[in-house]
Amino acid sequence: MSIQEKIIEQIRQYDTILIHRHQRPDPDAIGSQCGLATILRESFPNKKVYQVGSAAKGLAWIAPEEQVEDQVYQDALVIVVDTANTPRVDDPRYTKGKMMIKIDHHPNDDDFGDLKWVKPQASSTSELIFDLAEASHGELKVSAAAARMLYAGIVGDTGRFMYDATTPHTMRVAAALMERDFDAAAINRRLDDIEPAVARLSAYVWENMQITEHDAAYIILTNEILAKFELGDAGTAGIVPLLGKVSTVKCWTIFVQQKDGSYRLRIRSKKAIINELAKEYDGGGHPLASGATLKDGSKIKEFVQKLDQIAATEIGEQNDQ
């Protein structure tokens, strides 16, 4: 029995299913979570299916959040999607169910769950959810509503199909989803839109970005700067790809100060592996897209030096070829 068949078998057995995703969700977290929830509701009308997590600023258009009472977890199946490690699971009640399933495309550094389907080669967890439905041979029905959410997740996590994790299979899944009756072009436009405040912040980033000796780039966004643009941490997601648009930049980091003075790091790369560096700073993620944290700004210089060395290593590897 394949892992997909084992997951489907567990879904059949439970009357109540709660689906969690990671904190500070992106389109794939919301798309895979709510897409799966929609699939299960429409495929098993008698089951009670819930999507759990705090409100996702700017992503409510994909699907709204729900309020879930504690007693719902009794004898329930919990499915955690798109979440690499337990500290990142949104809502600590994910441990309160009778059984837990993990479905994810991040490296499996935190091996949690009673049943696990982790495939780092996949472009997104939304892609995996579609594959799960396909493995059911029609039992799990992907409606236009579910397809819209999964498509948003795939487009978001592939950077509009520009990232290396985009495979021929990813494109086939996207095409299959687009055959459902929803406006894919509207999803593309919505994910590409930015608010006026983010547009102004983008100009600041272009003007103030720093590029190291070996073409690693970074920008430090303090609370003072964010206040000037009337933006918080959530509003900075739209500027993360900007530094990578510079042709010479190999890897880059956005340092975003939090209200408590700590820094959230959004780390990206075109080819050089950066998730091991992220792990050194209480983070992790994909080889080319990771996150980390610093308790204050004292280690920013140290981090940038290590990022520069990663860029230098890539130069050395290119010279050896």
From TrEMBL:
<dbReference type="InterPro" id="IPR001667">
    <property type="entry name" value="DDH_dom"/>
</dbReference>
<feature type="domain" description="DDH">
    <location>
        <begin position="17"/>
        <end position="154"/>
    </location>
</feature>
<dbReference type="Pfam" id="PF02272">
    <property type="entry name" value="DHHA1"/>
</dbReference>
<dbReference type="InterPro" id="IPR038763">
    <property type="entry name" value="DHH_sf"/>
</dbReference>
<dbReference type="InterPro" id="IPR051319">
    <property type="entry name" value="Oligoribo/pAp-PDE_c-di-AMP_PDE"/>
</dbReference>
<dbReference type="Pfam" id="PF01368">
    <property type="entry name" value="DHH"/>
</dbReference>
<feature type="domain" description="DHHA1">
    <location>
        <begin position="240"/>
        <end position="312"/>
    </location>
</feature>
<protein>
    <submittedName>
        <fullName>Phosphoesterase</fullName>
    </submittedName>
</protein>
<dbReference type="GO" id="GO:0003676">
    <property type="term" value="F:nucleic acid binding"/>
</dbReference>
<dbReference type="InterPro" id="IPR003156">
    <property type="entry name" value="DHHA1_dom"/>
</dbReference>
